[in-house]
């Protein structure tokens, strides 16, 4: 039986964006045009804005690497990882989205290491699995960044 | 300057991993500061505690916790939490009370017993908490953020891992001379390079440890100091506790994304530089007037960024400054003469207070072997999680 797939956080991404592809979801203020990720659903945070409707909006699929690093040591809870399994470093990317003029953090797709990356490189957002590797737990889905033109 | 306050006393509990309660550390530091001021605890009008949120319930109400440990005596009490800026906010609260005439003499205390390893958010499922989210969704530890800044500097300014190591070598050399520091041992660039990578490009010796420790200050009005016969005290001339200005365009702890700049053009300069700018404006002096600075070297690379943000050099020139030795003891403007977090480790609510203790000793000329000759003015700079600024300017 296929295990349940649950987003690690609800409403932050969709598997079926405008072009039928995976997209991060933010919100946009109808009054000032500010975009928020993670989504801001209550009040526009622009201090000069009197406030508008905050509507869901898919973010750019591609962006450029602002910076990157990795995690050579196991992060503490609430990060979920099996202490009995040797730690596999993850790669972390900060990506500049030109249209939204913002930087978004995300883990790299599996297999992408810091050696594969450079500041300014073009990357795209792709679906991924965060955790839930044991048979009893649902799979937690997330977003990942991957250099453009790399399969995986 | 009518808006100045005096530093009458400064005290610390040595930094380390002592395995005892933050209350004990804070009480030791408080008693040391009181003794330094020549005052009894009963002389204190008001006590301000900088909170820790990792030491159980008492940490949330540190002011009262320290007051109880010292013996209830009816003083006004305040507790403040602003993460790494807690100490500066405690000093800010004390100053406001003194300048408003609500208290003549105030005891400020910050202490922590830090957990082993990475700092982590408090327990429980809290998906509305950005600090919880960055760990749960990304596993993004504090060193991961420091590493993102470090890598960015390498790409934009051409900084190298060797430049970063120079900061550790420099701060270890200063910390060696400080009896309050946890690490009192010289470190070589080779040792930094040989230490394990924590978050590429930063290695273990590029990143500050978590420590136990405490620091305290006795602050008072200029009139109170004069009445005590202290005619030329170290004076606090500015306390900056500013927030960022929207849109914040540099990724910062604990956020997963920056603000979008589509609707509002970002202000010139960084949040970190605005912290120092506010302090300089309030103090009526500038970076050219500094004898020394204490900055929050959570990582070696971050110290270079602070050089630029407090105006010691232009953007991207931080590495040049450390290479030239300008920020070492004996240099043009020593930075982290105390040894910095590199030598102390992080005891969150204490550190911003400890920075002011160091300025106090330096400006008094009592810093011993690490004394900056003829020190007349200094700044501290630090930044708290969730957008808390922290800088203090002290003069003599």
Automatic annotation (TrEMBL), chain A:
InterPro entries: ChsH2_Znr (IPR022002), NA-bd_OB-fold (IPR012340), Thioester_dehydratase-like (IPR052513). It holds the Pfam family zf-ChsH2. It comes from the Bacteria. SUPFAM superfamilies: Nucleic acid-binding proteins (SSF50249). Residues 21-54 form the ChsH2 rubredoxin-like zinc ribbon domain. This is Benzoylsuccinyl-CoA thiolase. It comes from Streptomyces venezuelae.
From TrEMBL, chain B:
SUPFAM superfamilies: Thiolase-like (SSF53901). GO terms for molecular function: acyltransferase activity, transferring groups other than amino-acyl groups. Pfam families: Thiolase_C_1 (PF22691), Thiolase_N (PF00108). It comes from the Bacteria. Residues 276-392 form the Thiolase C-terminal domain. Residues 7-111 form the Thiolase N-terminal domain. CDD domains: SCP-x_thiolase (cd00829). NCBIfam families: PRK06059.1. This is Lipid-transfer protein. It comes from Streptomyces venezuelae.
